[in-house]
Amino acid sequence: MSSLEELTSKLTTAFDGKDYQKCDLLLPAIKIELIKNNLLVPTDPDHVNPNDLLVTRSILEVGAIVSINLLNTANFNSFFSQLKLFYGLSQLPTSNNRNKLVALYLLLLLSQGDLASFHIELEQFVNEKMTVDELEQDRFLSVPIKIEKWLIDGDCSKVYEILSQQSTKFPCEEFHLFKNNLIDAVRTEIARNMESTYGSLPIANCKLLLFMQDLTLNDLENFIAERGWALTNGVVQFKPVGQSVPDGLSNEDGEKTIINNVLGYAREMETII
């Protein structure tokens, strides 16, 4: 059986070569060796060699980055959860990868629509590590913070714009892995408000509001079916949600804000709805 040192050397070589599949195969054996040496979840970190803790932290960071590149969110969550312990150890210097991985975790929460966990994670990070200003100025953390703010403000058009443009440059390539899921999350939020704000809409308007102008009619029809809406003679009839919508409109300010912001974006693009 290979030693921890040998396995770590192989992992480093594979990771540097972006052979994430090989990394994924090596990581379970490495974690077993870390457990044997009381390093994966050290019971008394103050009495462990700091260099050993640094090596373990680096391995967990590799595991997190590998997992997100392989789109294995369950493994990413596991590695990130273990990393939290190491990021909280005062005897270790701050990792250069910390803010990047925290930002990736925040983007994952946003893509899953889990705003509650997003706020909990961010507040904990503010209290323990950085000020709000430092967070907003950090090249990694500023991205999920801006996206979350736009979502809360109902400014979905800004989220879509930054995610859909090919010219958008994120601080690391892993951020691009969340683009499609985040766009789906934006469309889901807009759709939820559409069906609460309107009784029905022409299908052309739906395409504009959902940022589906460049997608096929089949894509839109699939989306309509998934939402439980009905399409008849070019008009989308929304499934009633909660109270009925008088005269096709609700009085919810938040719902109107999102719709109005999207409509405003369409007008800026010289599109008449």
From TrEMBL:
It comes from the Eukaryota. GO terms for cellular component: cytosol; nucleus; proteasome regulatory particle, lid subcomplex; proteasome storage granule. Coiled coil: none annotated. The keyword Mitochondrion does not apply. This is CSN8/PSMD8/EIF3K domain-containing protein. Gene3D superfamilies: 1.25.40.990. InterPro entries: 26S_Psome_Rpn12, CSN8_PSD8_EIF3K. PANTHER family: 26S PROTEASOME NON-ATPASE REGULATORY SUBUNIT 8. One of its GO terms (biological process) is proteasome-mediated ubiquitin-dependent protein catabolic process. It comes from Kuraishia capsulata CBS 1993. The keyword Isomerase does not apply. Keywords: Proteasome. Residues 99-240 form the CSN8/PSMD8/EIF3K domain.
